[in-house]
Amino acid sequence: LAAPTCQISCCKTCSLMLVPKAHMQAEGEIVLPEDIHDDEVKIPDEALAQSRQSSRKAELEPVEFLGVSDAETHIVLLGDSTLDNARHVGAEGQSVGAQLEKRCKQRGWNMTLLAQDGSTLDDVARFQIPFIPDDATHIVLSASGNNLLMLLNQLSAADFSPSALWSVVKDGLQEVAKSYRRILEAIKSNGCHLACCTVYRPDFSHLFLRTLASMSLGLHNTRIHEI
Questions:
Q1: How many CA atoms lie within 13 A of 117 on its CB side?
Q2: Exposed, middle or buried by CB within 10 Å (0-12, 13-18, 19+), for 126?
Q3: 74-79 and 138-142: which strand pairing?
Q4: Residue of 5, 9, 30, 6 whose CA lies nearest to 19
Q5: 121 near 150, Cβ under 8 Å?
Q6: Is residue 181 predicted with pLDDT exceeding 50?
Q7: Whether the Cβ atoms of residue 137 and residue 193 lie closer than 8 Å to each other
Q8: pLDDT of res. 201
Q9: Cβ-based neighbours of 197, under 8 Å, separated by 6 or more
């Protein structure tokens, strides 16, 4: 799979509003009008200096995160390798957990990484949710990608037969969505703010797999939004 490009969104009851990637022009791309070129876009030095000064000030000032004070904030990461990605990024300190831990320490916040590389929804339910700290205030969930990979393996074992395709798209994805809903219900019972990551699109080279992934992920991610 390609490096994760996490698309963040919120379920209907979530208080943490983050912008889905679908609202961007393209993956990591900023599109300028045709009549404007990179070398024509100039930002005054004075404006840059003010921006840097404001950023430094914001890093030092205490804030309330969704109504929770610095002293009380405790962020918990649940899910799979999208959040527990230290094994995949190589450089030390560049993983999601390491970067978030650094920022949390700057704020005086607490952070707990319960996400485990390779986890399925069942793993999250059995081995992560029961260990959410009692003082947790915010939870970030990225899960179900490995469940979808299991469905893909089922298709491959069945040589992508029409009956297997129908079974996976109709029944398999629906079962994953039901499991996801049960996970959310268990997490929301803790009374924490919750943010959910949709599943990123894998970098398949084969046109058939790209088309299948695009269709299946579109349906699955839509269901996550609806939940």
A1: 10
A2: exposed
A3: parallel
A4: 9
A5: no
A6: yes
A7: yes
A8: 83
A9: 6, 7, 8, 9, 79, 82, 83, 140, 141, 142
Dihedral of the CA atoms 70, 136, 178, 225 (nearest 10)? 0
Report percent pLDDT > 90 for the chain. 53
What DSSP string describes 84-139? S-HHHH-STT-SHHHHHHHHHHHHT-EEEE---TT--HHHIIIIIGGG--TT--EE
Of 161, 163, 181, 174, nearest in space to 219 by CA: 174
**Per-position DSSP letters for 137-179, written without gaps between them:** -EEEEE-SHHHHHHHHHHHHHTTT-HHHHHHIIIIIHHHHHHH
Q: Is the separation of the CB atoms in 142 and 115 below 8 Å?
A: yes
Span 50-68, mean pLDDT?
Answer: 53
109-150 confidence digits (pLDDT tens): 999 999 999 999 999 999 999 999 999 999 999 999 999 999
DSSP state of 201: P
Amino acid letter for position 198: T
The average pLDDT across 13-27 equals 36
123 token code pair: 């793993």
Hey, what are 125's tokens?
A: 């339910």
Q: Which segment of 17-26, 97-106, 124-133 scores lowest on mean pLDDT?
A: 17-26
pTM metric for this prediction: 0.69
Q: How far apart are CA 178 and CA 184, in angstroms?
A: 10
Cα angle for residues 133, 139, 141 (degrees, 5° grid): 120
